Amino acid sequence: MALSMHNKEGNNKQMDTSKYVRYTPEQVDALERVYTECPKPSSLRRQQLIRECPILANIEPKQIKVWFQNRRCREKQRKEASRLHTVNRKLTAMNKLLMEENDRLQKQVSQLVYENGYMRQQLQNASATTTDNSCESVVMSGQQQQQQNPTPQHPQRDANNPAGLLAIAEETLAEFLSKATGTAVDWVQMIGMKPGPDSIGIVAVSRNCSGVAARACGLVSLEPTKVAEILKDRPSWFRDCRCLDVLSVIPTGNGGKIELIYMQTYAPTTLAAARDFWTLRYTTTLEDGSLAVCERSLTTNTGGPAGPPASSFVRAEMLPSGYLIRPCEGGGSIIHIVDHVDLDAWSIPEVLRPLYESSKILAQKMTLAALRYIRQISLETSGEIQYGGGRQPTVLRTFSQRLCRGFNDAVNGFADDGWSLLGGDGVEDVTIVINSSPNKFLGSQYNASVFPTFGGGVLCAKASMLLQNVPPALLVQFLREHRSEWADYGVDTYSSACLKASPYAIPCARPGGFPSGQVILPLAHTVEHEEFLEVVRLEGHAFSPEDVALARDMYLLQLCGGVDEKAVGACAQLVFAPIDESFADDAPLLPSGFRVIPLDPKADGPAPTRTLDLASTLEVGAGCARPSTEADTNNYNLRSVLTIAFQFTFDNHLRDNVAAMARQYVRSVVGSVQRVAMAISPSRLSSHIGPKSLPGSPEALTLARWIYRSYRIHTGGDLIRVESQAGDALLKQLWHHSDAIMCCSLKTNASPVFTFANQAGLNMLETTLVALQDIMLDKILDEAGRKILCSEFSKIMQQGFACLPAGICVSSMGRPVSYDQAIAWKVLNDDDSNHCLAFLFMNWSFV
């Protein structure tokens, strides 16, 4: 009895000690070191830890397991508390920003009410006048209004007098602040730019003001000095900036400085001249601690020194613009950005003037670009964005900048870069320019060793054309996803040969077109996914036995941007350059590509979902019935300008041959783009709005009957429930089945390709019936899925069917798709011979 009592007390004592253990600091340090290496150690690892650490010998493995559980819980709570604190800080700052914006809007409303009352009074006075002196009344009222709002006239300042430049700087600062936080400009919020903790900010464009202007307010987690440093480095984020030279720096007494800046910008198309700016930039700290960077052009009206002449540029004017950066409580900054320019639109053809008269285009190219770049840097600095592939974010950004800069250099072809015009063949649709000293624009880091056989130079074939009723985002998206519709494999091979020791001969156009497939490998993307950097692998195949040397994979570094159809005024472009399989961070790039810029504002209303397949639009779509929404889509009136530029290397003795090839190739690409544009214009795409039409051919009816009958024979169950198999009732139910059903060829000497899919299957693969035959089975299955299918293939052929476990597959657009279960079965024809292989993917969804 005493022994049992003693054992009971011992057990209770042991139970009490198992509830709580007080760890010594040395024990905690030992456990923390293990936690750093492995937050969730296995049972074997915990036992090993006890054996290796004598200080933990008196602690049971169960207690160590509990310690790690509690440690993981504390870490999770700490991260959640940090996240909530960050969100709360963002909401507080955004609330402050919205309250200031509300105050500004109330002032603007008061001013509009006052002006409305004044104009109403003037109209009443004019109507009450009985004598015919209306013209005199209008003139007098105009003079009175001019006296109330006089045009500022600045006396000529002494160019060598810092006091005169400081006076200009202070006036610029006052005008800039009145635009950033006041009512000097009638701002209208851009469509789709809603403020919030995860939004880019508040974005507005000007209405009824001289020139074009855009304004943005946002919140970032960087300090004001860092933000100012980034924004002042305009070539790093403004893709149209060719160069920015600070020619003079004058310190001011208040701790700021005045800079005289000469900036050159690229022309967006070959149909217009480039612009340059001669400006004064003033950086100062305000009384409330905010940092202000304002800038304006120096002209004869403002005074100041004259800028450097530039014969190949049109001098544009920058009206008071800049950045107001205010420190935020708890860290970070609130940014106000104002861009206000007059781009001298009268110097270009009238059809292109919207390029220089649209505040929305300015907002996308400058204002939003600056805010997005700062936000990208902020998230990368805080570690919220991490890229794979072992590349640093700075390197990936540099790749994007180099692609854009190289494409802009090709489109503009400046003489000081070494470009010169090459004579044409009598038709001026394609312009050919050559550069015999490409080191000027490739960069000094690329010497002759970069191109081992680079004995000639670089040739660029470029063209521009106007498009009607073609959404730029949709066109670029199609060109990206369907390269085979416009590209030539031989030309791509020649372009990539410049990276090799022995380039191939000049290619000729092949009737086979583009026999290879493409695989898009994501590399990086911006925060809002408005721009993608990716590597494209072109899978090569030989045309003939003598072309075996061409049958190798090629790689392109590709930048795609502006593919969001809802982005108003956004420029859509696709730029690519051949690279090696393992390209270095400083690899030479020779970019080519497309750029589409809208000339008119977009039509209101949501854009319909459209299938990007050219063949289905031109062939299948012509016979489809048009829905009632066609009248609305026919009113979609959008003009845009398309610029195409392709660059090639050449040897001196082959220059004329390369020029002829390039000219012919660009004309071929232009023809393909025109065919694509005609196919995807809203007038034709209206037939594709809504569900896809079901194929009504006799072959489709027969195949549907075979699929249904084979499933019933092999599995003993019904794929679908039909009362009658007469007519197309069976096909309709199969077509509208909720699960993805698809068939692929059953050939032993070739890779299986898809031959049929119902509507759910087409949605899952993100393709159409016409483009379905270009998709191979092994391309959509992941490695695990291919292994499972190979292991079950013999069972399918013997038993007739097999059930496959849940897995992941990939659509034709590269998006992962998950499914709960898949069933594969043989489809037998009327002679009970094997016809194809059918798959049923249950409960699929995009990951």
Automatic annotation (TrEMBL):
<keyword id="KW-0539">Nucleus</keyword>
<dbReference type="Pfam" id="PF00046">
    <property type="entry name" value="Homeodomain"/>
</dbReference>
<dbReference type="InterPro" id="IPR001356">
    <property type="entry name" value="HD"/>
</dbReference>
<keyword id="KW-0238">DNA-binding</keyword>
<protein>
    <recommendedName>
        <fullName>Homeobox-leucine zipper protein ATHB-14-like</fullName>
    </recommendedName>
</protein>
<dbReference type="InterPro" id="IPR023393">
    <property type="entry name" value="START-like_dom_sf"/>
</dbReference>
<dbReference type="InterPro" id="IPR044830">
    <property type="entry name" value="HD-Zip_III"/>
</dbReference>
<dbReference type="Pfam" id="PF08670">
    <property type="entry name" value="MEKHLA"/>
</dbReference>
<keyword id="KW-0805">Transcription regulation</keyword>
<feature type="domain" description="START">
    <location>
        <begin position="158"/>
        <end position="377"/>
    </location>
</feature>
<keyword id="KW-0221">Differentiation</keyword>
<dbReference type="InterPro" id="IPR009057">
    <property type="entry name" value="Homeodomain-like_sf"/>
</dbReference>
<keyword id="KW-0804">Transcription</keyword>
<feature type="domain" description="Homeobox">
    <location>
        <begin position="14"/>
        <end position="78"/>
    </location>
</feature>
<keyword id="KW-0175">Coiled coil</keyword>
<dbReference type="InterPro" id="IPR013978">
    <property type="entry name" value="MEKHLA"/>
</dbReference>
<feature type="DNA-binding region" description="Homeobox">
    <location>
        <begin position="16"/>
        <end position="79"/>
    </location>
</feature>
<dbReference type="Pfam" id="PF01852">
    <property type="entry name" value="START"/>
</dbReference>
<feature type="compositionally biased region" description="Polar residues">
    <location>
        <begin position="129"/>
        <end position="142"/>
    </location>
</feature>
<dbReference type="InterPro" id="IPR002913">
    <property type="entry name" value="START_lipid-bd_dom"/>
</dbReference>
<feature type="coiled-coil region">
    <location>
        <begin position="88"/>
        <end position="115"/>
    </location>
</feature>
<keyword id="KW-0371">Homeobox</keyword>
<feature type="region of interest" description="Disordered">
    <location>
        <begin position="129"/>
        <end position="160"/>
    </location>
</feature>
<comment type="similarity">
    <text>Belongs to the HD-ZIP homeobox family. Class III subfamily.</text>
</comment>
